[in-house]
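Q: May I have one protein plus its fold?
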Amino acid sequence: MKKGQFYVISALVLILFMFYAHYNSRFEIPKNIDYGREFFSSLKTEVLRSASFAYYQGPYSSSVESNVSSFLDFARNVSASQGQRAEVLVVVFVPAYSTYNVSVINYMTSSVDVNITISGSEQNITSLADKGSARFIFNGVAQNSTVNVTYMRNSVKSSDAFNLTSRKLNAYADVNLVSSAVTWSDRVVA
């Protein structure tokens, strides 16, 4: 067999294989994907991951606020490019021995008043601006304590209660994705 015949036969086999693969493939791209809902689902997951990613920098570092804020800037820009508005309030509880450093990050597009109560100890901030953050320190927090997060925005009060997981990073997020057609809203705790 001559050298040229090998290349011709190889090319014909490759062409036949490509036709076979094309006509017998069962891959389909779903046509009815709700991109807003998928983006919202990813946003809920990733906002909590952005807080835990910065946790390894240390409990006194400002990296928690800056890392969450960077992710929320990205989420806000992506949602705006799709004609939507992302609104998120994140509260991160970073343990340090018997204390918790609590970071509040506001991306609700307006100022909010936030009140946090852990086992009877209460701290609050008024008029936390959009894209603003605040930090509280709660001393002597018992393991598995109950947390109450209450915030007021535009005269509408929202509150939630959950338990801190013993001596590990905990995060709370109130996530809203607003579009002209529908609004997705959920609160997540990790």
